[in-house]
Amino acid sequence: MNSTDRQPTVTEPLSRRTAMAGLLGTALGSAFGYDQFLRIEEPAFAASIEFDAADVTIETNCGIVTEAVVAEESTITVDYANVPDSVLTDGYQFQFTLEANPHVDGRADRAFAGWSEPNDHAPADLGAVLDGMDGDGSASDPYVITTDHELQAIAAALDAHYELGNNINATQTGAWNDGSGFDPLTDTDADEAFEGTLTGNGHRICGLTIDGDDDGVGLIGVNAGTVDHVGLIHGDVQGPNAVGTIAGLNIGTIDRSYALDCAVQGTELVGGLVGANVREEGETEQGHIDRSYAECSVTGDRFTGGFVGLNVADTRDAYARGTIDGDAVVGGFAGANALGEGEDAGLIGSLLELVIGVLDGLLSLVGLGGDDIEETGVISDAYATVAVPDHDNAAGFVAVNETDRTCLLFLCIGGDPGDLERTYWDTDASGTAVGLIEADGDEDLDGLSTGELQGAAASANTALDFTDTWTTVTDPDDYPHLLDTPIPHDRGTTPSGGSTTFEPLVDAHTVPATDLLDPADLPHGTLTPSFTDLNIDTVSLSSHSAIDSDFTHLEPTADAARIDTTIEFTLTVELGTATETIATATAGPATATLTVDVD
């Protein structure tokens, strides 16, 4: 994605976001009104109108219901009586109007309080924005972020404390700064990384667009602080090197955070959540990523991973989904878990110097250099289901897991491996039976089929902690999910208070009576037209301002097996001409229950 025009909608799959259900509604209809001048018995629609929709799809984008679609194969059955022969010769038409009213009873606790309004320009004075925010930036009274401008204002005080006060709609950031978008929260000119805290409170940042020119690209360019409970959805992040969604380079802590339906693109060190996760030699407090996940489309040249491009620190309890593309050192979870190229990686020349060159400049922001960082990392309790490219330099989980080693005859020096503990990859979804390009047999890495890694089978086939950290996902079966983090897909919508009537799904769509009525059936009979018969290409509700302010995402918790969302449909059928109506019947409400699967 290169602009906000390409922001995907959450189709709940509500991965990208779709909810489906069967709909069968029957309601009483009444006939009223007829033209006295026709001198005929009153036309009437019979006591029932049946509306049978095969599928109903609800789509949302950044908390707003953008579309409700009824399948074209849906049918409408109308019983009628006392219809005169003249309707076939005097230009009478049927007019169909369909409205929908979604609501979720007793689900207010599952909906966030709303989203901010996006700004179509970058803030002119970050200091002034910061001064106008609630809080003073201290640990006890953090600045409260409620808009995209306030999110950008973090750059004015990179060592302060912040928290999100609501969901942030950042879908207009692609138009900021002459198209380069949001500025990563790092001051490369002043050699200053983010060293504060950013607590998301479980809120989301939607539609963030960054097209950076400097190395270290993400919401935070270089993170030496703490990011907790922050989610990025529908983001588009591009840059040269060290590119990720939450952070380009992490030497701090990232906990319970995620990136969903994001596109990430760069050259070296590219990851779905973080470009590179590193720590200084001998340090234990740096470079932690815990209880987080990424479901993104990731593209890079080298050192590219579905979750992290390079890990030479600590990554625990995490997973990666989505797709990945790259030329060398490409892994479904991590490109590399060590600063080495791998003896059999099929690389030409050393990539190590390229990577160290990138890291040197970024680590100077926190007083380090490439020679000061650890050479191997730890990845534990993690899995990847990422589709990887079909070439020798790509692996289902991690491509490189050892430092360079030198061999002379039968003597080899070096080659310290990274630690892989309780790690897994889906051999079906990844498209490869190779989880690690060069394996020495000590890595705790297992390839499992989709069936073995999904549903209740996951607890039997993995050693993940399903008591305190992970949960299996069933009905339908899906991959394990982390407790205490939002689900990876939105699959429902709810108004933030009461029910709201949509504008018509089918608004005054007219069909000549001669196209539907059979003269042999007059004066009474049954119509059973489908939406296709009515020549309606798409029966849908596009985004309307009337509902934007009232709707938010439905956020099921991980322990909920399913959420039922009800949509009531009202169908009105009229018979008449352009100037007169001789009969009207309304069926409604017909009720559809959308089953929202939590995964």
From TrEMBL:
InterPro entries: TAT_signal (IPR006311). This is GLUG domain-containing protein.
